[in-house]
Amino acid sequence: MPALLFAAYFIAEIATLVLFGHLIGVFPTILLLIAGSAAGLILVRSQGRRVIEGFRRASRGEVEPSTAVADGALVTVGAVLMFVPGLLTSLLGLLALMPFTRFVIRPVVAAFAARRLSRVATAVGPYGYRNVVIDPDGEVIDATVVTEYYDDGQGNGYRAIDPR
Fold first, then answer.
1. Structure pTM?
2. How many Å apart are CA 18 and CA 7, to the nearest integer?
3. Cα dihedral value 90, 91, 96, 101, nearest 10
4. Which H helix or E strand runs over 37?
5. pLDDT at 53
């Protein structure tokens, strides 16, 4: 599957380069690629500072922590996409780095994270681990640990697991 995704990415990047090469010419396409990378690097620096300031504000309780975390995730994804060569990835990276597009994408990231975290919260529960694990595929694994003891070398057996 990863090889298929990489092949699809590679074909999409080549098609984008050929399309832009035919529409605006070869040298303007190369200049567009360089300009996109330069703009991305400038945005990575400035938005990285803004994200760090957002984390500070969230730690002081001035903004919602989910906003700061979503912005941090989007800026990270945008920075990674800016280092992958190609017009398509540069465009996606720029979209993830710009503040006004992050405002639109942020609820999608928050919904995805909430859905993933609800699985973990269901598995752990409000009082800690309760012998049920929910696999990321949705499979429920039920298990019970029988009382286990360990020996500290002094002849005293101690319970390894607190049954609560």
1. 0.65
2. 16
3. 160
4. helix 26-59
5. 92
